[in-house]
Amino acid sequence: xxxxxxxxxxxxxxxxxxxxxxxxxxxxxxxxxxxxxxxxxxxxxxxxxxxxxxxxxxxxxxxxxxxxxxxxxxxxxxxxxxxxxxxxxxxxxxxxxxxxxxxxxxxxxxxxxxxxxxxxxxxxxxxxxxxxxxxxxxxxxxxxxxxxxxxxxxxxxxxxxxxxxxxxxxxxxxxxxxxxxxxxxxxxxxxxxxxxxxxxxxxxxxxxxxxxxxxxxxxxxxxxxxxxxxxxxxxxxxxxxxxxxxxxxxxxxxxxxxxxxxxxxxxxxxxxxxxxxxxxxxxxxxxxxxxxxxxxxxxxxxxxxxxxxxxxxxxxxxxxxxxxxxxxxxxxxxxxxxxxxxxxxxxxxxxxxxxxxxxxxxxxxxxxxxxxxxxxxxxxxxxxxxxxxxxxxxxxxxxxxxxxxxxxxx
Length: 410
Prior knowledge:
Number of domains: 1
Structural class: mainly alpha
Helix content: over 70%
Number of strands: 0
Shape: globular
Strand content: under 5%
Radius of gyration: 22 Å
Order of helices and strands: HHHHHHHHHHHHHHHHHH
């Protein structure tokens, strides 16, 4: 009874901290709910509400975005405030979910620490305050993570992985990480294969829809577009001196013109911009690969830079926008946070490897996949958000290892 009382107190603390952190930020944000990407989700949501189909803002067939998040927006009438409130509430629920998982697998102290670390994570709160996919995707990914850990039903895990792809296409190959995890857990290969097949059902269906509607078999053209705009342009920007953001903007403009010229010459058309976006993106990707092959070392440098940004960008500016504290103080204070979390998480994984190898393996596979897949010229703290729950769990266990004075394997 006393133990249950302590756990209820912990849950009350976690709920209070997460709720206050999220809704204080919402109150202080002055209606700052949008990124440029936000409107590319709202447009198809509004088109669906008007029974026009899945269209972009120009009334064209939408192949850049997958339907998961726009469908959710449509359920809320494409109104901003309800979805923002939902996303903050999902953060609160996720903090509680982290506490429950870690409590049953590792104990009360790391459960409380992990959930509180998540509850006050700046990028997590900041992006819940935007009309973006991050929060919904993070919750769905955590559900898949928990289901994979506990007596996995491969078909259910696979189907939910397919849903992940329809929310954010970056999850397209996450089934590979899950399959590797199931092999480590020594699940029968038949069940592993079932998970893989189930994971491909929904993405394949959507790719067929895009093939029929646009002539391009793709889950989303965003990968093709980003290959030119961020990977190829980023590789060239790395070679330029000066500010990277300024350099990549200049390279994007130049490469877009070059790719358009190449398309016009190859297809014998007067204006590449008149091509359907998905078709144009496919040719952009072909041109991007040519640039990347010509600059392999710069591309590797760009990828390493992207990994570091994804892991260690603090997003302190998000707090500056809602705070009276000096920017220099905020940058110093919050800049150290991701570094400390990473070090603690590394210790936690070593500690966890001897006690709960399955959980350690799935954390490593999940973090490595999503941090690695988004490492490029577009990298920012936003792309760390989906794996913040896993990082905070590992960091809390790292603190537990230090508290116990446990000797780690060398």
